[in-house]
Structures are given as structure tokens and as C-alpha cells.
Amino acid sequence: xxxxxxxxxxxxxxxxxxxxxxxxxxxxxxxxxxxxxxxxxxxxxxxxxxxxxxxxxxxxxxxxxxxxxxxxxxxxxxxxxxxxxxxxxxxxxxxxxxxxxxxxxxxxxxxxxxxxxxxxxxxxxxxxxxxxxxxxxxxxxxxxxxxxxxxxxxxxxxxxxxxxxxxxxxxxxxxxxxxxxxxxxxxxxxxxxxxxxxxxxxxxxxxxxxxxxxxxxxxxxxxxxxxxxxxxxxxxxxxxxxxxxxxxxxxxxxxxxxxxxxxxxxxxxxxxxxxxxxxxxxxxxxxxxxxxxxxxxxxxxxxxxxxxxxxxxxxxxxxxxxxxxxxxxxxxxxxxxxxxxxxxxxxxxxxxxxxxxxxxxxxxxxxxxxxxxxxxxxxxxx
Length: 382
Description:
There is one protein chain. With 382 residues, the protein is mainly α. Helices cover 64% and strands 1% of the residues. The relative contact order is 0.11. It is globular, with a radius of gyration of 22 Å. Helix 5 packs parallel to helix 8 (147-167), helix 9 packs parallel to helix 11 (232-271) and helix 13 packs antiparallel against helix 14. The chain has one domain (2-381). A two-stranded parallel sheet has the order 1-2.
């Protein structure tokens, strides 16, 4: 706890206080803090954050002028500001608000929940250290990049799934009442897991890449590897019965803005990140996009290049391979590994791979390693 406070929480609070002294944005991220706070303000004034521009907000003076294309786009999904709005109102009533307070609150909840994924104390400490002291994500949290927002919802979904999985096989020695209570608890944990996953998907599209693997996890206790194709329609129906709350939450968050102005949300979330339009996002980051720039395949960073072909060539076979692999061995560790590596392959072949994405991927690889080691230890001791 002391290490987390000194290495993460206190430095974040320090930057929040320095940022509050002004000028605003000197110690904070553009999208995760400044823009999200502006979207909450738009929400409370009945304005559509996907229609409005941000030229009259603190975002207008953040960063290099040539790369301020986010002034005209909010590239995140509605749960980022819908969930934060009550905290914004509370903070304003108390005289101080910074979006990083929400991120720290969610991170605290995730760090409390994550140890429940394993049983031994040293493994619990390892998971807390790997998630809370992630060397790549530390600065991102301090400055307020919102990947931790999505990460926490996914971690809570995984913890909920693990609790459901542990409760599902009822003990033969239990009476009817005990069995019924256990089944009820299992259903509640599964519901919480699915809702947390829906919240992640309604925050950023990076969570969508977990859908194939999380969906398979929700079919735990089914012998998927031995099923013929005739049995899969029943599995799809079972999955839909279990996952519908996530669809409902996602729809409740996103559909109103689609009905309000479908093109506006499409333009902000998808077209902008694909570099389309007059103010699309630039080619950037640590991935294959560097080769596109180095080889002169575009005139400048804002040029168009068919990254989708590279994504299909690399990411689609990876998805098929990992999906088939998890069908044969549908484990928690495999789901984490498959998601992290699949997302890495996709982002590497995309228009931009920023360092914060690597910070986001690392916890899932770490979760896969630790939980796989724990499973191997239990098997060898039994």
C-alpha cells in the first residue's frame, strides 16, 4: 500500500493540484482529462459532445498546433462521460474536480478486486504489483490518459467471471437450500461480470477485441473442443442468454447519440482514428506505420494509406488461431493472452500504436502468466 501511495497515488494528486493552479492542461492529458471534462459539461448543458467542437475549452491550447485535430472530435464512447458525470457534479459542489479522481477511484476498486483471481498471498501481491505498478502505465495514470478507465472495467469483468466460475460447480454434499444460494450468488457474479464488460465496450473500442475470448469464457463448463457443428447453435443461444445485459448497457449508452446524430458519433470515434476527413488523426506511434512514413508511401502524417489491408493480413489469422486455440482449452489465462496479443497485432498494423496501448496490453499478459502459473502449481500439488 505504501509503495502504491508513494509511486502512483501521491504523484497523481500532485499533478492534479499543479494543474489546478493553471494554466489548465499543463500537467494533464488532452483527451482523458481536458476533453472528457468538457464533454461532461456539454452533457449537463444538453449538448451533444460528438457535434460540438472544443475550440473554447482548455484543450484548445494543449499540444502542438499542427496536431490538434481532436479539437473537432471526441474519440471515446459515451460511458466515459456518463459514468463520470455524477462525480463531476459532486466535485463542483465541493469546489474541486479533476477527471483523474475517477480513474484513481476505479483503479482502487480494481486493485481490491484483482487479488480474488488467485489464492496464495504471494500471487495476490504479484497481481497487485503488476497492475498497480505497471511501469508503462504509471505516467499515463498520473497525466490522466483514460486507458486505465477501460482496463478497470475489464478487470472487474474478469474478477466477476472468476467468482461465477468458482461457484458454478455445486458441491454434491450441499443441501437444496445451500445449492440454491450458491446458484444465486453465481448468477449475480456473472451478471456483474457481463455488465462490467458492457461498460468497457461502451467506453472505448479497444475493449471490443476482448469480445470473442470473453464470450468463450462465458461458455465455461461446456466441452467446446469436442462439439460438432450441429451443437454450436445451442451454444450461441446460451451465450446470448448470458451476455444480453452487456448489449443492453451498451445500447442504452450509445443508441441515444446514434439517434441524435449518427454521423457525428461515427465521424468522431471511427473516421477520425482512421485519418479520414479534413481533421483526421495523424499516422503515429511505434508500429508498422513508421515504415509507411520512412518509405515515403504517404506525403505527410495526415495522408491516407490502406492500413486495413495489413490489419486483415495480420490480425484476422491471429484471431482465427487464438479463437480455435481457446475452444480447445477454454481457460482464463488463454483468454487474457489471446486478447493482449491479438490487440497488439492489430494495433501494430494500424495507423497508430501509441505507448499507452502497450501499457494497456501489459496487464493482460501478466494476468495470463500469473494465473497460468497458479493453475500449474495446483495441478502439480494435487
